[in-house]
Amino acid sequence: MLGEVLGVERRRRWSDEEKLEILLEVGAGGASVTQVAQRHELTRSQIYGWRRDLKKKGLWSPDRGAVFLPLDFGAQSEPAHSPPARPVLVELRLGNGRCLRFDSSMDGETLTGLIRAVEAA
Q: What are phi and psi of 44, to 5 degrees?
């Protein structure tokens, strides 16, 4: 019994710019790798492979698009006898859909290193 040919397999070619655009969709609006892959009729492994290949070419970095904005809460004078402010829990949503929770007393350099490590994982 012979099989019936239903269609022709096609091999698509993606430019580096197209790959970058697709990679940037991951995490945007909470989109997962699986959702982005399905949207573009790709496999998850293609997305991860593109990420790895573009990193090697120097076109993709884990902190690509990361923006740090200064916060100014204004000059607030504290009474001379007030206890020191207690650190608060901060939650940061990263572009890859991951979430970091850390103490507000963490210094900027340590936080930057932590974000880069999580984004690279």
A: -60, -35
Predicted pLDDT at 14 = 87
Give 9-68 pLDDT, tens digit per residue: 667 888 888 998 898 888 877 888 999 999 999 999 999 999 899 888 877 776 655 555
Single out the residue of 81, 77, 121 nearest to residue 100, CA to CA. 121
27 backbone φψ class: left, alpha, beta (φ>0; ψ -120 to 50):
left
CA distance 60 to 50: 9
**Residue 97 and residue 85: Cα distance in Å, rounded?**
31
- E strand or H helix at 52: helix 44-56
